[in-house]
Every structure is written in structure tokens, then in C-alpha cells.
Amino acid sequence: MFGSLVLLLGISFRVCQALSEMSECLSLKIEERNHTGNLEKIIAIFGICIHVLSLGASSLVEEEQYTWHFLLSTLCITLIHRTCQVWNSQPEEKFEFFWSQDQLKLRENLNFQSHSSNMESPDTTSRLNCERAGSSHAQQLRTCQLLAVILVLIAGRLLRSWHQGGVNWVYLPDIAKWLDYSGPHVTKYLQIASVLSVMLIGISFFLAVKPRKFFHFFIATNILMCGISILLFILWHQDQNMPSLDYWQTLMARLVYISLGLTALTTLLVFPWTISLPSSSSLVSKSQKPEIFVVSQFCSGITKNYIEAGTRNCISFVGMVYILCWCLLQLLLQQPVNACPNFILLLQLISMANYFYNASLHQKEWIMVITMYWLGMSGHFGLGNSNSLATVDVAGAYIGLSKHSTVLSGILLFIITYASPFLFLFGSLLCSSFAKGRNNTCTDKEDGNSGYFVLKSIALPCILPLALNSVVLVGFTGILFLMRNHLFVWSVFSPKYLYVCATTICIYIATFFIAVTGLYVNLVMFVRSKSSLPWIHMKT
């Protein structure tokens, strides 16, 4: 166990070091010397140590949700500080990497026209308009970054108030108790609103995908049908006076299971073969530079751009489909009072993904993975879970089952309990697909940024969560050995150790899906590059 911890930490350190070295070659990278940027790193590293040390106190084990809320809130505040620090240290006109693609093309055309006409100065009016448009776009992105983190903080505070949790203050009022006292109708309306909100987010996502093909409409239709089926299940489930609907409820739940599973699997297997990729002519124009290149290097750059562009778009789409399917599954399985918390978790994920997309040039990649990991653990307690076996939702484990099955009910129980960690681990797959900048170019020594993208999108989201969980597992195993004669060893430390072991299984399953998704998509893009660009491979 200790050997695996050392191995995972060593691999994580090497991956982070490689990503840091590769990011230095990006021509549009922010100058690190102008920013300290060490505060969030200190918070992340010390937060991991503080969490492990807190597990040595029985009271902090019982009230672990407060530790996660404190760590997550502190990290979010440091992210806000980091964003303000970066934007205040440079003039907005110098943030060309935040400009839109149309503004970048306009600036390139102006530079080309001035160079071809041998003018000493380009068109001043057009250039000023371009600079103003770029500055306005940068200002909007800065506002989006700040609002995204603030929304995460507000959502986290709402989740903390939804379930009191723990042991010492469980008797205090919270939102879940208030909904129980208000009657089933209020809970049902909130549950329906949560399902409709998730469906609306899914529709907005599919409408934003361009160009849209038949496969996009097929996946969108399946998700909408699953959402409608869940709405029917909720309406039937609330009617306690019609026992004849039990058969149809079970059948409806099974259809949702099958449909969601097939939707996610079909998206993974089929979408990489149907996604629209840039043409070879556009890749050639992007790869042409004033310098003279060797033919093999030139063709290799085109192939890597082709593979990277397709892999990035494909992983983003597949990751979002995973997230939507998982949220709909949780809306079916979770208690009705947890419908809104599931939607709030989705809002947190989308907000943080938006932040890291806009902050990808001045934020370390491992900070993104740690933030997602902490959001998942904080959301785990926000759904009403604790370190006591008494809070496990056993009722939801029998939805869709006509008779008792230990294996099936155990799987459903595991899915319900670890809904939030799975969700944010899938979210790390979505965030990791964001490129470091919009016009990334590296020196010949780095040979493109394809290796950077593979490490960021596949290696880091798989290795770092395993290392973080291994730290907790090894640390708490040592604590449990030292506390073997403690008075609360069976009531506090033993149930917590069961949760730690179950969390380890959760992390391994999620990272396995992330690794399979990334490797399969890269393999398909490589095969398609050989068939779409045969002349390049003949020259190489």
C-alpha cells in the first residue's frame, strides 16, 4: 500500500513537471514572473495534509463535511484572488489569447495587408477597432471567470444548508427537514423543476454544437426521452393510491437504465467516427510559416493538429454526454429531496468548467484536477451522506427491481452513495479537454503540443485522483492502526474506513472510464488521420 502511494505520487509529480515544461513553450503563455501564483498551490497542498491529519480526531471524522466545505471555500477564494491578480497586472490589450477567432483573423489580415503593401504602418482605424473589440471580449471573459467562482461558492453554501449532516448538529433545522414538513407536493414540484432544468441544459448544449449532424439529434432525442420517462416515473411514484402502477414504474425505470447506458456507450463508440474534422487544406494553411521546414516535420505537424483537434472536440462532447446521463440517472435514483442538490452540483460543475476554460492560460492543470476532486467530496456530503452507515439510502437501491438481488441492489446503492464523486471525475474529463490557449504554437524542440494535450486530457485526470485517494487511504490506515484501542474505534473509525475503501473503488472505476475514453478517442483519430491524409503518411 505504501509502495503504491510512493509510485503514484512519483508519477503524478513527473506528469505535472512535464506539463509545466511543455507549457513554457506556448508562445501565448502569460509571463509567470509577473505573478506570484503560489497561493492556490499552497492551499491545495496544505489542504491535502490538513484533511489527512483531521482524520485522527473522532469529532472531525464525524463532522468531515465541515472540513471539505472549509477547504473548498478557501480554494475558491484563492482562485478569485488569482484571477484578479492576473488581470490587474497586465493591460487588457495584451490578452490576445482571449480574443475571439474572428478578431484574431482580422488582426492577421491587417498585418498581412500592411506587410504585402510595404506600408510602414497599417490602417490605424481598423487596428484600433480590432484592439477595442479584443479588449471588450477580454473584459467579458474576466467577468465570466469571477461570476463562475462566485456561483460555485453560493451553490456550496446552499448545499451545506440542505442537509445538516454529521452527528453533533444533526438536530438543527435545514432545507431538507423544511421540505419534509411542507408536504410531498412541494418536493414533487422541485423534483420536476430539477429534471426540466437538466433537460434544458442538455438541449442548450446540443444546440451549441456546430455543425450538427444526425448523430447529434439522435443522442439529444435519447436524452430527452429519458428525461420524459423520469418525469412520468416521478408523477406515478407520487400517486400512492394506485398500486397497479408498480409494474409500469419498474418497467419505466428499467427502460431508463438501458437507454442511458446505451446512449453513453453509443456516444463513446460511434461519435469519434462521425465527428466533423478540419480539412487538409485548412490544416496546411495553419501549418504554413515563413520559415523553411523539412517535409517530414511539416507533415508531422499537420497530422498532430488533425488528431488533436478531433480528440479535443470529441472528448468534450463525450464527457458532456456522460455528465448528462449521470445526472438523469441520479434524478431517478436519489430521494426526491435530493433532486435540487443534484441540479446544484451540475451548476457547480458547469461553472467551474467555464472558469478553467477561460483561465487555462494562467492556471496549473493539477489545480483543476484537485478542485474537481474537492468539489466531488464536498458534494458527497451535500447530498446527505456522512461517515455513518445509517445515512445510506437503501430505498433507492431497489428502484427498477421486481425482486431482491444482492448484486444489482448493491450496484445501485454504490451509484447512489457516490453520485457526486463520479460526477466531478467525469467533469475533470470535460475540463481537461480544454486546450491551453486558442492558437497554441510550440517550438520545434517540443514538436507540437500533442504530447501536452495527451498528458493533460488522459494522464493527469487518471493519475492525480488515484494519488490523492492513496494519500487518504494510507494515512487513515495508519491512523486506524494507532487508534485500534480507541473507545470509538467501532462506531467512528471503522465505518469511516469502509467509506475510504469504497471511495477507492469509486476512484478506480471512474479513472478506468476516463482512460478508456481517452485512449479509444485518440486511437480512432489516429486511424482517421491515416485514411483522411494518406499523402502525408506517404511522405513521412
Structure characterization notes:
The protein has helices at residues 2-23, 39-54, 58-62, 64-89, 101-116, 124-162, 175-182, 184-208, 214-238, 246-274, 280-287, 295-333, 339-358, 365-382, 406-417, 419-432, 450-482, 489-532, 534-539. It is mostly helical. The longest helix has 44 residues, at 489-532. It is globular, with a radius of gyration of 25 Å.
Keywords:
540 residues; mainly alpha; disordered C terminus
Give the overall silhouette: globular
* Beta-strand proportion: under 5%
Structural class: mainly alpha
Strand element count:
0
Radius of gyration: 25 Å
> What are the secondary-structure elements, in order, as H or E?
HHHHHHHHHHHHHHHHHHH
Portion of residues within helices? over 70%
- Arithmetic mean of pLDDT: 77
Low-confidence stretches: 26-36, 91-108, 112-122, 280-303, 435-448, 535-540
Biggest sheet statistics: none
Give the number of helices.
19
